[in-house]
């Protein structure tokens, strides 16, 4: 099992990025959360099997149609014990 913290920068707010990410997370069976940040980036924690986390990270590199990902930063994170993937309010 793996847990990563990700910050994605670009045109990632107002394009359905968070809700599309939740669908991808559910598709791959990962847990965690995603939220907008006040600096116009998106922040997420993704937890699950290594292959599933890698698949979600690959999707996050481009996002949904209409998004433009300019950069992302991924770091290993402590497991939160989340049992689902949730969309959170802006941080």
Give me the secondary-structure topology.
Blueprint: E1 2-11, H1 17-28, E2 31-36, E3 42-48, H2 50-60, E4 68-76, E5 85-87
Parallel strand pairs: 2-5
Antiparallel strand pairs: 1-3, 1-4, 2-3
Largest sheet: 5 strands, mixed
The computed structural class is alpha+beta
Number of strands: 5
Helix content: 25-40%
Shape descriptor reads: globular
Tell me the fraction of residues in β-strands, as a range.
Answer: 35-45%
Low-confidence stretches: none
Mean pLDDT: 97
Radius of gyration: 12 Å
The end-to-end span amounts to: 26 Å
Give me the side-by-side strand order of the main sheet: 4-1-3-2-5
Tally of individual helices? 2
Order of helices and strands: EHEEHEE
Folded structure, characterized:
The chain is of the alpha+beta class. The protein has helices at residues 17-28, 50-60; strands at residues 2-11, 31-36, 42-48, 68-76, 85-87. It has a five-stranded mixed beta sheet with strand order 4-1-3-2-5, with helices on one face. A hairpin with a 5-residue loop joins β2 (31-36) and β3. The longest helix has 12 residues, at 17-28. It is globular.
């Amino acid at each position: 099992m793996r847990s990563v913290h990700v910050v994605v920068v670009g045109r990632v707010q107002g394009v359905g990025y968070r809700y599309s990410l939740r669908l991808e997370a559910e598709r791959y069976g990962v847990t965690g959360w995603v939220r907008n940040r006040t600096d116009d980036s998106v922040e997420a924690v993704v937890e699950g099997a290594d292959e599933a986390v890698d698949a979600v990270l690959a999707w996050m590199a481009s996002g949904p149609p209409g998004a433009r990902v300019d950069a992302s930063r991924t770091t290993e994170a402590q497991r939160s014990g989340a049992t689902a993937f949730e969309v959170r309010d802006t941080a």
